[in-house]
Amino acid sequence: MQRRLVLGCGSAVRGTIERLAEWPGELVILSQRGDVVDAIGADGVTTKRRAPADAEAFPDRAELVFVASDDAAANAEAAAEAREQFPDAQLVVYLSAGATAQVRERILETADRVIDAEQILLDRVRELTTAPGAERIHRLFATLRRIDGRLAVVMHDNPDPDAIASALALARIAASVDVPADACYFGDISHQENRALVNLLDLALVELDDGTDLAEYDGVALVDHSRPGVNDGLPGDTEIDIVVDHHPPRAPVEAHFVDLRRDIGATSTLLAEYLRRAGIEPEESLATSLLFGIRVDTNDFAREVSPADFEAAAWLLTYADLSMLDRVESPSMTSAVLETLGRAIHNRDVRGDALASNVGAISDRDALAQAADRLLNMEGIRIAIVYGFRDGTVYVSGRARGTDVDLGETLRDALGAIGSAGGHADMAGAQVPLGILADADDESIEELSEVVTEVIASRVFETLEDATTLLDVGADDTEWAFEFPFEVDEE
Q1: Cβ neighbours, 10 Å, residue 347
Q2: What is the rounded end-to-end Cα distance, in angstroms, of the chain?
Q3: Strand order from edge to edge, sheet including 427-433
Q4: Span 143-168, pLDDT tens digits
Q5: Do the Cβ atoms of 185 and 204 come closer than 8 Å?
Q6: pTM (2 decimals)?
Q7: What is the radius of gyration, based on Cα positions, of the chain?
Q8: pLDDT tens-digit profile of 75-84?
Q9: Sign of the C-alpha dihedral, residues 275, 310, 131, 12?
Q10: CA distances in angstroms from 395 to 67, 210, 345, 390, listed in the order given
Q11: Separation of alpha carbons 21 and 17, rounded Å
Q12: Are 410 and 382 in contact (CB under 8 A)?
């Protein structure tokens, strides 16, 4: 069992010493401050009202010595005594600001590690003002302070964990500058993991309906997508204050503050960076959500991951509830997902290493992504695209692995002219309005499904056949309004 010895208790490190008292093992504290001796008490903690350099009051052994008074000269003397008494112990010394050069030199020569107050302050100032990203966080706070009222932080439709966590984090950052904010979304949270995330962590989200009047909000931010009216229920002409996203934009993005970094694996990584730079410690539920968002969007750090994603995850680990994260990641699979997966397997159309499958009418659009993930694990398959329809729209979800084809660009080229599509090289989606076919009755659903297959599969496979490497964002950003040019036989 480790025995730790604290010599002195300066005001700057009082909190650190109180944390040390919570560690397992034995702790001995020598301090002439009566308030410290009286206040710090716990099992395994011994306090003595003695001078830090009083070697006669030292215990018989110590594996870690922390010299921690506010007086640098006293710390130098106590450190020398501790080194002589415990030559093999790890010696950590707090060096307060204003120490003379001579005292500083004595401490540096004696200690194994030095906590240099002046250097820490200098490094912090440098990080806040000149380090990479410092200017970005400054602009974000400046934008937030200009919002005179409540901020709506809007996720994309049917938000995934990355969008949910990012919205909550931006709302937390806004609150730090006294700007009240709501994490808002349109659509449904139907994926079982997403529902588990919201329910188990008791996350506060605001559900919006199409046509919702946002007059109560004085500012609007978008997270995990970048354009109003595209994959959200906002009017297309909504003025946007803040955009934070890691998806490559298909058209120019307009907002007072824009942070678009396509080389980052998750938007949650960007928000974790903001929190860390701003010195905001995330609550357990927020840290757990952000960590889950990073893990989901990077496929457990195996897809489009960057060093920043690893750094953000490592920082969040110190605040997250890992047992709760395990519960979120292991929810039961709904019957709708199982049914969709079964139809996807049965209806699969395989051409080379690409697979496309029409699952017909769906009740849970998130089931498409889960089916695509599963089908990508089939032997010989490197591209899996699953699609189905509901509420007058065909929804498409695609996954790719180990291929030079940029799936996001492929779906844009294949379906962009008749709907909206986009995403990343290995994870993408699309939405195509059914148009006049949306009114098909139950008797014509089978015929409708055949038409959808003909349109979607033919376009996707033709584009895949022509595309060998599509790694750059396309230049044509024109938006099209298009309906399926087919009619349903009334008979």
Answers
A1: 16
A2: 84
A3: 348-351, 354-361, 383-390, 393-400, 427-433, 420-423
A4: 999 999 999 999 998 899 999 999 99
A5: no
A6: 0.61
A7: 29
A8: 999 999 999 9
A9: positive
A10: 63, 18, 17, 8
A11: 6
A12: no
